[in-house]
Amino acid sequence: MQEIASKLEEVLVRLESLDDKMCKLVMGETSKKEKNALRRQYYRERRAEAFKGRMKLPDFGILQRKDRRLQKVEEWAGMGLRFGKADRPAAFISWLVYVWNNECYLKKPITFSGSAFRIWNGSCRHALGAGDLMHYYRKRIKMVPFLRNEAERQDFSTRPWWGWGSYVLRPVIEEMKESELWATFSERFKTMVQLLGGGLCELEIGGTCWDFNEELPAINNMMKRVAPTWITLIEACLTGLRAAECPQPS
């Protein structure tokens, strides 16, 4: 409680400082030069406050390995349990993608422009469409068979977005499974949130353990059962990457 009180006091001091600056600007108690200086200082402090606790982008590809500086698993799992109680798996995925992409780093790991996603690779950004990033083809109507040949299976197994599922989503799922609430969630919720986690989530579909690296017949057989869920999941990821506001549990 003492720690919380001290943090609240610190926040109040900052707000009073900002209020003083704004009052001077509004009341006209300063010269034009001083107003400009105060305004710049005010916005610098506001920006610094908004970005407090955020990290620089890593010096490796953001989807290629785990960023061990991220210490959000328990917090994110707690929110996941709230979404689970509301039975909103797609909203949870969109929320987690949004928070990871918008609130952890000083700059977004993944931006969107020119009809392509720009993914941080450790030194710059490279462009990928939704198909190359997460095997999403909006104009494709026929989903059976899901993978039509071995070349498509190899492409599907190595899509970069599966790295996000392994390094960001799966630790959150594992933390959620430690809660007694997990057993009360719908099969729909548990299936959707675990699909992106890959084989280590030990999700069984039609008697086969789900894995991006499974053989073509096995993936197609599993997709016959979960294709609508899979499409909703991928669209939830796209929504999170493009969202202007953070989705919230009801």
What does it look like?
The chain is mainly α and 250 residues long. It folds into two domains: 2-50; 73-242, no CATH class. The protein is built from nine helices and five strands. It has helices at 2-27, 32-50, 73-85, 89-103, 130-134, 150-157, 161-177, 187-195, 216-242, and strands at residues 110-113, 116-120, 125-128, 204-205, 208-209. The protein has a three-stranded antiparallel β-sheet with strand order 1-2-3. The model has no long low-confidence stretch (mean pLDDT 87).
The helix-and-strand class reads mainly alpha
The major sheet is characterized as: 3 strands, antiparallel
Helix content: 55-70%
Q: What's the total number of strands?
A: 5
Q: Count of DSSP helices? A: 9
Averaged pLDDT? 87
State the separation between the terminal residues, measured CA to CA: 29 Å
What sort of overall outline do the alpha carbons produce when their principal axes are compared? Answer: globular
Poorly predicted tracts of residues? none
| Whole-number count of domains | 2
Q: What is the H-and-E element order?
A: HHHHEEEHHHHEEH
Task: Summarize the entry for a quick read.
The chain is mostly helical.
Properties at a glance:
2 domains; 9 helices; globular; single chain; mainly alpha; 250 residues; 5 strands; two-stranded antiparallel ribbon; three-stranded antiparallel β-sheet
Which SSEs are present, and which pair or pack?
Elements: H1 2-27, H2 32-50, H3 73-85, H4 89-103, E1 110-113, E2 116-120, E3 125-128, H5 130-134, H6 150-157, H7 161-177, H8 187-195, E4 204-205, E5 208-209, H9 216-242
Antiparallel strand pairs: 1-2, 2-3, 4-5
